[in-house]
Design goal:
13 helices; binds zinc ion; Rossmann fold; globular; 2 domains
Length: 288
């Protein structure tokens, strides 16, 4: 199972680890359940009704990873509908559209049947970097979504609070209800400086998304167990893992992506060893 994961994932660094199963996701219990329910409604029940989900939580808490895995599963052409999870082998999984979108607003992918594409799905998927998107791109996207096609349509609004900063939120978010589209939005609550409260999303803005979920941290022990799997997967050794991985989970403030940075660092050591010294001395962002 592990070797299959490695072959299918071009991500060579532990820091860019991608889940291959729902069990590869640590913490985020309600968030994961919500994503699994979306997959069930869309792929098993074949619903094409609008879904509007907003996930919030600190950076590296697993938002993007879970949303990408959900999109990967939604687009997978080779699903076991009794337990839907991205296969990692079909046309769409291999093309990594869940990471990149399909190229431009208007493209969508079609494919022929084959043994690896048993549950084909026609779709549009747009990834919108809200820090960079401009008015014209938004207008083009909305024009396209106005068409009444019945293929699966997904839009991922990454760092969605940036729309408000550019005063683009009204233009983009008002018509959310008009389209049969699955909207995934994510937003980190960022601290601008040490003595400033985290930036909160406007309530009206949040209310546009009926499905709202916050990231949840795993326990230290859960995160340590998950890190042990990552060490094994990436061929790293770790002395006294029962102690050191729990320590790493604590040092990383129980944030999976933070702990992975240290695993990444060990990956560069010629010894490929995750030492207690590295865990204690690693300069985390929140140490500064
Ligand atoms: Zn697949």
């Amino acid at each position: 199972m592990l070797s299959m994961t490695k072959t299918n994932s071009p991500a060579a660094l532990p820091g860019s680890f991608e889940p291959s199963t729902w069990d590869d996701i640590v913490g985020n219990y309600k968030f994961k359940k919500l994503c699994q329910n979306i997959v069930y409604q869309v792929r098993v029940k074949e619903s094409r009704e609008a879904i509007k989900m907003l996930s919030t939580g600190e950076s590296r808490g697993g938002k993007t990873s879970l949303i990408e895995f959900t999109i990967k599963t939604l687009l997978c052409c080779n699903l076991d509908l009794s337990n839907p999870v991205a296969c990692g082998r079909c046309t769409n999984c291999n093309s990594r559209f869940y990471k990149t979108g399909t190229g431009d607003w208007s493209s969508f992918v079609d494919f022929c049947d084959s043994s690896n594409n048993k549950t084909p799905v026609r779709f549009h998927f747009h990834l919108v970097d809200c820090a960079r998107v401009g008015t014209h791109e938004i207008e083009d996207l909305l024009d396209e979504l106005r068409s009444d096609a019945d293929e699966l349509r997904i839009v991922y609004l990454d760092e969605v609070h940036r729309l408000a900063k550019q005063s683009l939120d009204e233009r983009f978010l008002k018509p959310l209800d008009s389209y049969k589209v699955i909207w995934f939005a994510s937003s980190a609550m960022v601290k601008q400086s040490a003595n400033e409260a985290p930036q909160k999303l406007d309530k009206m803005f949040q209310n546009r998304f009926p499905l709202r979920v916050e990231t949840e941290k795993p326990s230290e022990l859960e995160l340590a167990g998950w890190l042990a799997h990552r060490c094994k997967q990436f061929g790293l050794t770790c002395d006294n893992p029962e102690v050191s991985l729990v320590r790493l989970a604590r040092r990383a403030n129980r944030i999976p992506g933070m702990a992975l940075q240290v695993i990444d660092r060990a990956h560069f050591e010629p010894s490929r060893e995750l030492t207690m010294d590295l865990i204690e001395s690693y300069p985390f962002d929140f140490d500064k």
